Amino acid sequence: MRFDQLLRNSALLADLPDDLINRMAAEASMLQLGVGQPFQRAGQLPPGAALLVEGRLRRLQVRLGEPPTSLGLVGPGSW
Questions:
Q1: Closest Cα partner for 9 from 26, 21, 27?
Q2: Which string of b and e fits 14-27 if b means at least 16 CB within 10 Å?
């Protein structure tokens, strides 16, 4: 599926004009993560906005000196 179609199908972006969706799609890139590979590390800003297309991501809260706490899973369509 093309980036513009993925973005148009997102409820979050449903009301945006086509020209804005097209500009966002032109700058989009696909990132594939392996099992256990982090998207964002604690204390760092994420590399940008991300729309999960397939699979699941586990959200973890990491505090110094404590084990990670699971904040649950997110699936396709999640930002």
A1: 21
A2: eeeeeeebeeeeee
What is this structure's pTM? 0.75
CA-closest candidate to residue 13, choices 30, 3, 1 = 3
Cβ atoms < 10 Å from Cβ of 7 = 19
Q: How far apart are CA 77 and CA 37, in angstroms?
A: 19
Buried b (16+ CB within 10 A) or exposed e, 61-78: eeeeeeeeeeeeeeeeee
Per-residue pLDDT tens digits of the chain, which is 79 residues long: 689 999 999 989 989 999 999 999 999 999 899 998 988 887 888 878 889 999 999 999 888 899 999 999 999 989 8
